[in-house]
């Protein structure tokens, strides 16, 4: 029997047991058992845990995935239970949530998968608690919501950023614009298209030496730092947008709320009092940067109530693939109305980049 099943069984037995003088001892024992299992789940014996972990292998579904990351008891489960039809257990004690609980937000015609996760603590990157599993889920997400307790200042934010940074997650940052190509021979060729103020050729040579790379091509297309160059060499970095959500603003002064709300990528809410949740949804949508594309058939109105949902940067080709696997092969041209079009409509090729709320009619061969 897995540890989650054991926990569920004990919880069921506690629920079944009537509370009175005679059962006091029995209940106490059950609760102790529960605490032990929870502890085992958080800190497995031997300190080794697989990256995935029991209860974390939730299927991706919908148009985008958002992960809720935060310290214990900041209100992650309260948020999931408020915004979606899924109920995730909420309670005043820490580590109430032990696995990954998915819910669905429907917004602007898109289905967004929201994942409630166990609280993480300092040292999560080294495998403390269920940190490693939580971080593995965060890596697979299109947006990370870092949920913070508004009453606790900025300390939680800094610690969490450090934990995510330590495992190669880069929040709200673009992939560094550096071309890097390892080669079989020919030494190191270094070039840049802009003046470099934060890094130089010598530094690059030293870094490459450290990584035992002796043959490669490097081209800085931006004024990047040496850290960014290392990120490019390692290659396994995840560049993920992030929204900081300060919860429990019902507990702080209006001046403090105002200060938090003015920080970049930040939203202030109260899940319990349902304050500002509409704006949270709006900001989530903006940070996901999804595109709504309305298809239309010749002589008919666009399907405004049933958009295709695509990622920023999507082209006509992506639209084709979303409609049907084979359409791209028979694509002749498309007519596009909207912000990506110069005229209404513009006749475009398959590599045309789409904008949010464009209308498209595909003409086949
Ligand atoms: N004052 C206040 N309390 C809140 C708010 N939202 C949630 N809480 C309380 O915070 C406590 C923790 O809520 P949870 O949703 O269980 O927190 P969590 O982040 O999921 O916690 P773990 O699963 O243990 O990591 C509960 O007692 C909630 O009632 C809020 O907006 N204001
Ligand atoms: K809790
Ligand atoms: Mg929870």
UniProtKB/TrEMBL annotation:
GO molecular function of the protein, one example? GTP binding
The OBG-type G domain is annotated at 64-289
Keywords in alphabetical order: GTP-binding, Nucleotide-binding
Report whether Nucleotide-binding shows up as a keyword of the record.
Answer: yes
Every copy of the TGS domain together lies at 289-364
Q: Supply the CDD domains for this chain.
A: DRG (cd01896), TGS_DRG2 (cd17231)
The reply to whether Iron figures as a keyword in the UniProt entry is no
Pfam families documented for this protein: MMR_HSR1, MMR_HSR1_Xtn, TGS
InterPro entries per the UniProt record, alphabetical? Beta-grasp_dom_sf, DRG, G_OBG, GTP-bd, GTP-binding_2, GTP1-OBG_CS, P-loop_NTPase, Small_GTP-bd
Sorted alphabetically, which PANTHER family does this protein's record hold? DEVELOPMENTALLY-REGULATED GTP-BINDING PROTEIN 2
Name this protein carries in UniProt: Developmentally-regulated GTP-binding protein 2
Q: What is the lineage of its organism?
A: Eukaryota, Metazoa, Spiralia, Lophotrochozoa, Mollusca
């Amino acid at each position: 029997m897995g540890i989650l099943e054991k926990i569920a069984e004990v919880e069921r037995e506690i629920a079944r047991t009537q509370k009175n003088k005679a059962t006091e001892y029995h209940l106490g024992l059950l609760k102790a058992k529960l605490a032990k299992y929870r502890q085992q789940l958080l800190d497995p014996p031997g300190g080794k845990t697989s990256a995935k972990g029991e209860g974390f292998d939730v299927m991706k579904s919908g148009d985008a995935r958002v992960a809720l990351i935060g310290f214990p008891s900041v209100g992650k489960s309260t948020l999931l239970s408020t915004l979606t039809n899924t109920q995730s257990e909420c309670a005043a004690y820490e580590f109430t949530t032990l696995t990954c609980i998915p819910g669905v937000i429907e917004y602007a015609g898109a289905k967004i998968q929201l994942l409630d996760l166990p609280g993480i603590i300092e040292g999560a990157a080294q495998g403390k608690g269920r940190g490693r599993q939580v971080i593995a889920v965060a890596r697979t997400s299109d947006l990370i919501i870092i949920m913070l307790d508004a009453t606790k200042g900025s300390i939680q934010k800094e610690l969490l950023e450090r934990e995510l940074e330590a495992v190669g997650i880069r929040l709200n940052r673009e992939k560094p614009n550096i071309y890097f190509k390892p080669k079989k021979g020919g030494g190191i060729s270094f070039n840049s298209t802009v003046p470099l103020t934060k890094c130089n050729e010598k530094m690059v040579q030293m870094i490459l030496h450290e990584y035992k790379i002796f043959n490669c091509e490097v081209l800085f297309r931006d004024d990047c730092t040496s850290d960014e160059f290392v990120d490019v060499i390692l290659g396994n970095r995840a560049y993920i947008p992030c929204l900081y959500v300060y919860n429990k603003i019902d507990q702080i002064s209006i001046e403090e709320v105002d200060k938090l709300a003015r920080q970049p990528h930040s939203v202030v809410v109260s899940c319990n009092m349902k304050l500002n949740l509409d704006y949270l949804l709006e900001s989530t949508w903006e940070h996901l940067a999804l595109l709504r594309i309305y298809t239309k058939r010749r002589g008919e109105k666009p399907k405004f109530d049933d958009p295709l949902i695509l990622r920023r940067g999507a082209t006509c080709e992506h639209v084709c693939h979303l409609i049907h696997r084979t359409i791209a092969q028979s694509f002749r041209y498309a007519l596009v109305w909207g912000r990506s079009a110069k005229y209404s409509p513009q006749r475009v090729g398959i590599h045309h980049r789409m904008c949010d709320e464009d209308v498209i009619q595909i003409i086949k061969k």
